């Protein structure tokens, strides 16, 4: 069996169907039934980063959500690509710490899941 790089703690973008949406999140758990993420819609990610890095409480936050496997179309790792910055990189440019550190601070109960 090939080991999966999709392990708890990894930041991903999940492409979902029925309804069609994209979410950015931290993997909390994955199994044959589905994917548990601490996530928010991709189209809200830049606003969330801006609010979190402005030292004010954000008007919305990431939520812990289970997505059943039949809804998952594909999963991309949040990585730098030619001409495209990752969300982790965007966060680090505005803050003095990493996105993963921020999520550990904001959601300490998730630590036991990953």
Structural commentary:
- With 114 residues, the protein is α+β, with helices and mostly antiparallel strands.
- 25% of the residues lie in helices and 32% in strands.
- Strands 4-3-2-1-5 form a five-stranded antiparallel β-sheet.
- A hairpin with a 2-residue loop joins β2 (21-31) and β3 (34-41).
- The relative contact order is 0.22.
Name the descriptors.
globular, 114 residues, 32% strand, alpha+beta, five-stranded antiparallel sheet
Task: Summarize, please.
This protein is 25% helix and 32% strand. It has 114 residues and is α+β, with helices and mostly antiparallel strands. 21% of the residues are buried.
What is the straight-line distance between the termini? 21 Å
**Major sheet characteristics:** 5 strands, antiparallel
Number of DSSP helices?
3
**β-strand number:** 5
Strand order, sheet with most strands: 4-3-2-1-5
> What percent strand?
25-35%
Q: Please tell me the overall pLDDT.
A: 90
Radius of gyration: 14 Å
What is the helix/strand order? EEEHEEHH
**Regions with little confidence, pLDDT below 50 for 5+ residues:** none
Give the CA-based shape.
globular
Oligomer: single chain
Structural class: alpha+beta
Give helix % range: 10-25%
What order do the helices and strands come in, and which of them pair?
Blueprint (H helix, E strand, L loop, with lengths): L10 E6 L4 E11 L2 E8 H12 L9 E6 L3 E6 L9 H8 L4 H8 L8
Antiparallel strand pairs: 1-2, 1-5, 2-3, 3-4
